[in-house]
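Schema walk-through. Below, the input block comes first and the output block second. Nothing else is stored per chain. Lengths vary across the set, and this one has 164 residues.
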Amino acid sequence: MSGIKKNPPKKQNKKPDEPKTILDVTISCPTCPTHICNAAAASNDHCTKLAEKNKHTKYDDLASKLDCRVVAAAFTTYGDWGDDFKKTLVDPYYKKEFKAARKNGESGWAVINDRLRYERHVSAVICRENSRMLGLTLDARCRARAIQRSAPQRSPVADSDTDP
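--- output ---
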């Protein structure tokens, strides 16, 4: 947000009474000790709701002073999405696209399919990159041990020099 304050966004094509949108992305891990609690056990979106709440608590006051609104794009390392980003930006975009398709006499299926593809792609990228990050942070000895364990084991009898 301090970068936004120093370099405010340029004019956008928007309605005059609509504030500028600042997108703040966060990716949380549901298995982090911070997120393991009874509330998380009762709700599958506890992690993203908490992340969105923290972003809004931290930045809403500053954003209102800058005549902006904060949209928290909260995801989990498993590819789950928070509601704020979906309801504020994704849903309106695809609703507009769907209406345009229906107005042009189309069924709207292409728009629905495009949205599903978009959501799957974003979730898959988050999961893939999380996996890559975890692989990079493992220490070399752990990786070597994991490789040794996954290699097929030879039978000690077959390796002995006494076999003909």
